[in-house]
Amino acid sequence: MQNETSQIRRVLMKHAEQAFIFQEKLAAEWRNLNYLAEPDFKKACAQSDALADILTGLGCSVEWLGADETVGIDSIYVRDNAIASDKGLVLCRMGKEARRPEPSAMAPELARIDVPILGQIGGTGKIEGGDLIWLDGDVLCVADGYRTNAEGVRQLTDYLGDAVSEVITVPLPHWNGPDDVLHLMSFISPVAPDLAVVYSRMMPVFFRNWLQERGIALVEVPDEEYDSMACNLLAVAPRVAVMLDGNPVTRQRLEKAGVDVHVYDGSEISAKGCGGPTCLTRPLERG
Question: How many domains does the chain fold into?
Fold first, then answer.
């Protein structure tokens, strides 16, 4: 599990029906959570089905989280709740306060589907799954930003122990401030061990250079496709990826690099909540 690009065997998702089923929450929360507009419930459900069908067709077994009244509509973005490792999942402590109940609410669901839990971040620690990527099996790239702090990373690395050989800290810009959604994976998504899609204008120079020195080629997202989440891409297998429809330039560049690209309509489950396919999925087994 300590990579982002090998074949996904099992993946966790939360269907829009379960995330948005409490209609009064949907109507009340979307503004407070900085959604661009209120998701359409029926269309969102259809889009969850369609994305799951794509993943199933690519060899992924989909596990579904159930509804839970203790969490809000952001719970559709399951990646942020937990960090995967070869030793088990580490439950996060969310940097976004409104999402704090989500990891604990997910714990019994993980037990139900026999996913081991290594531990949970606590105290003043903060870390979210979208702020972390694995490279080469034991190299951890992790953000320093509004959603993840040094104490959260310290606790995580204590849990992981010798599973980690190196931690690369990537400072994030202020961007639109602490209330906005900005993760490490807002500007990088690995596509293969030697390939990543990036939005370089947001990347620290040292990190961009470090990736290239490791032999990782970079597919650049143009300015006009950053807000439509062309950079948020899920590698299902090396050079097999799922991305949000409506990013033709980035798709063409990926295909030129030999990537088999599959697109989905995420107008309700992605665009309005600013969460792409990596946000909507937590891979549980790769191999």
Answer: 1
